[in-house]
Design goal:
Number of strands: 2
Strand content: under 5%
Radius of gyration: 57 Å
Shape: rod-shaped
Oligomer: single chain
Number of helices: 25
Strand order of the largest sheet: 1-2
Structural class: mainly alpha
Order of helices and strands: HEEHHHHHHHHHHHHHHHHHHHHHHHH
Length: 487
């Protein structure tokens, strides 16, 4: 009995002491007073130091348990990757058997389906527009066009244009519509000239007048021979004789013609003109007469000459002029000369023309991309694309994802995700401020709930400490009688 009682008392005291100490960690929850005097050890240690404990736990979790490196390592773990891949494969397999349309699924999922889809369409169209309107995108287009233009074989283009020009000219040469249009243009220009009060000499450039005079001086003999040949033509001879006969008839009394015929007089006068022209020494006089006639002609007003020109040649003559012009330009030699001039001009200014074309394309590309019509077209395209996708069966979309495709897609997504983890996750973790979140969450707990969490976590350890107190108390109770027996 002398040993058992001290051991029992010591064990009880040790057990109770530790039990009380553990309880005093949590209780009381609030400060207690008697007659205004604070009772020591109130509130309990944990309620009293809850803010400091929350701050310490927050720092421990934020800095050591859930820091960005730990999160990245956990998300990049092969086991996690395998679990995610398996979960995605399972979802895809289940979707391959889903024959509902995407639209139907989303309508059942989203209450405001119409508004959400409209917003998605508008945002996608806006995103596409913002991308294609960037300077970098426009610059890439212009650079691409520049490279393509540099790689183009200009000789092949010139040859193609030449062939097309030949075909066009041949078609135009046989076009009655072109002949009529050209005749109308000639008539229109003649009508405009009928209002021109300038003289022919004022209209013609001085170089042309000087060239005419020089030609007359240098080709006297040739001109004389030409006039002789013209006068000897029967039709010309008859017209001149008739004109002379008419003048005589108009200016002489009919009694005079009883003695001599007007036609005989006309023939004599024409013969005299022929003899005069046949004399080579008279070429100077002929040229002088022609110059005098030209000078008189130069003094005439355009407004007087134009109507007479129309009366002289008539509409048939204008049509013949138009036909002659068309035939002249449709002549192979003529269009070869024309195209050669065009080609030489283009080759001489090839680089300049390229720059002009690129500048033109640059300006118009910007105008087109920034136009309201482009906005409407992009929205129409995006809207139709989204509607087509939404109208498809989920299974038809998922069936296209084969194992090889899935591996490539998953590998691509994984690469993007890992890059995201490396570059963006640290900032996101910092933004969330895990330390502050944990601290605030702990401070929001009720004291009872906070106590329950700690006890639930350390229940076995706390019980062991309590019983350890009883054991130590029993050992101390045993030492006292043993020491008394020894001494």
């Amino acid at each position: 009995m002398m040993i058992l009682i001290p051991v029992a008392v010591g064990a009880i005291i040790g057990y109770f002491t530790n039990w009380l100490a553990i309880k005093m960690l949590f209780r009381p929850h609030y400060e207690k007073k008697i007659l205004g005097i604070k009772i020591p050890f109130t509130p309990g240690l944990i309620p009293k130091e809850r803010k400091r404990i929350a701050e310490s736990i927050g720092q421990a979790v934020g800095k050591y348990l859930l820091d960005s490196d730990t999160i990245i390592k956990s998300l990049s773990d092969q086991a996690v990757d395998k679990e995610i891949k398996g979960w995605i494969e399972g979802k895809i397999d289940s979707l391959k058997n889903n024959h509902n349309r995407i639209k139907e699924v989303l309508e059942n999922t989203w209450d405001d389906y119409t508004h959400i889809i409209s917003t998605v369409k508008a945002n996608m169209a806006s995103l596409v527009l913002s991308q294609i309107r960037k300077e970098g995108f426009i610059g890439e287009i212009v650079t691409f066009l520049h490279r393509k233009m540099d790689s183009i074989n200009t000789d092949s283009i010139y040859n193609m244009v030449e062939k097309q020009l030949e075909v066009i000219i041949k078609d135009l040469a046989n076009s009655d519509e072109l002949k009529e249009s050209l005749g109308s243009l000639i008539n229109e220009n003649i009508r405009d000239l009928s209002q021109d009060e300038r003289t022919l000499g004022e209209v013609l450039p001085q170089e042309i007048k000087e060239s005419l005079e020089r030609y007359l001086e240098e080709n006297k003999g040739l001109i004389g021979q030409s006039i002789k040949r013209i006068l000897k033509e029967p039709s010309i001879k008859a017209k001149i004789q008739n004109s002379i006969s008419g003048l005589i008839t108009e200016n002489f009394n009919k009694v005079f013609f009883a003695f001599i015929s007007p036609d005989l007089i006309a023939e004599k006068i024409f013969s005299a003109i022929e003899r005069y022209i046949d004399n080579d020494e008279k070429n100077e006089d002929v040229i002088f007469i022609i110059k005098t006639l030209l000078n008189r002609l130069m003094e005439n007003k355009i407004s007087d000459l134009a109507p007479r020109l129309v009366d002289s040649i008539g509409q048939e003559g204008i049509g013949q002029i138009a036909h002659k012009v068309i035939k002249t330009f449709s002549n192979p030699r003529a269009y070869n000369i024309l195209f050669e001039k065009i080609r030489n001009n283009l080759e001489a200014k090839e680089e300049e023309n390229k720059e002009r074309i690129l500048d033109y394309l640059d300006r118009n590309i910007r105008l087109i991309l920034n136009s309201e019509e482009m906005e409407g077209s992009i929205y129409y395209f995006v809207s139709n694309f989204i509607d087509e996708v939404l109208d498809k069966d989920i299974s038809s979309v998922m069936m296209k994802i084969h194992n090889a495709n899935f591996d490539r897609i998953y590998s691509f997504i994984t690469t993007l995700f890992n890059k995201f983890l490396e570059k963006e996750l640290p900032q996101i973790v910092e933004f969330f401020n895990i330390e502050r979140v944990v601290e605030e969450r702990i401070n929001d707990f009720e004291i009872d709930f906070f106590e329950e969490i700690i006890i639930e976590i350390a229940e076995r350890e706390l019980k062991a400490i309590t019983w350890l107190g009883g054991l130590l108390g029993g050992i101390l109770g045993l030492l006292s009688p043993l020491l008394q027996m020894l001494y």
